Amino acid sequence: MDDNNIRRFNRVTRVKTFGETYAADFAPGSKATSLFLELHPIVARLNEATVGQLRTPVGKPELIAALSLDFKDIARTARAIKIDQPGFDDSAYRHPATSVEKPVTTHADSLLKLLKDNTAPVADGGDTPAQLAEKAALRANFIAYELPADFVEDLRADRDALDACNTGKHSDNLEGVESTSAIDTLLSQAQAIVTRLDAAIQNKYSRDPDKLAAWKSASRTERSAKKAAAPATPPLAA
Prior knowledge:
Layout: H1 3-21, H2 31-54, H3 60-84, H4 101-115, H5 129-143, H6 151-168, H7 172-204, H8 209-219
Helix pairs in contact: 1-2, 1-7, 1-8, 2-7, 3-4, 3-6, 4-6
């Protein structure tokens, strides 16, 4: 959100809090009570939209780094398993010493093929019962060395996140525009409610200066900060 919308959002949040604080002053079903209730779902939707807009997406370097950590954990464990089982081939688990995306994703896919069950029908290339049993025993070897029981699922999730990053980046700009438009619409709806509340509450508290002052403080829109004036240029020496 830009600075103006942030100020408008803060105002709506303060008005909602005011309504909750002084709810007992307003009769159930009164105009003011109904307006405060109308405001609640709008504030909830604004919070959702704001969180979605401010959430920092995980970038591709971070996702590749996460996969590299997965690789190192699996490779280190494979070397230990080889000591226990001299016939165990740990070469397939050696991770590529690179952060280039293509070899990273290729290695991730290779590990998943070795470790993750393929539950598709056997006729469509899925694992046979014997292959499923072999993979379960293989995973148990890694888990015995204190890898998490869901380490393969973690690898799959990190691999999927990289795919999602690649496919999602094209829609980021459009989603940002849609999110900004939704926030503008919600803030306009909230503004209309606050304007109507202002009439009701100023009438309600016309003889209660303390609560009236609290309302005015809650319902005002903060002014933008003024830019500092540029320092005056000293006159040139004669």
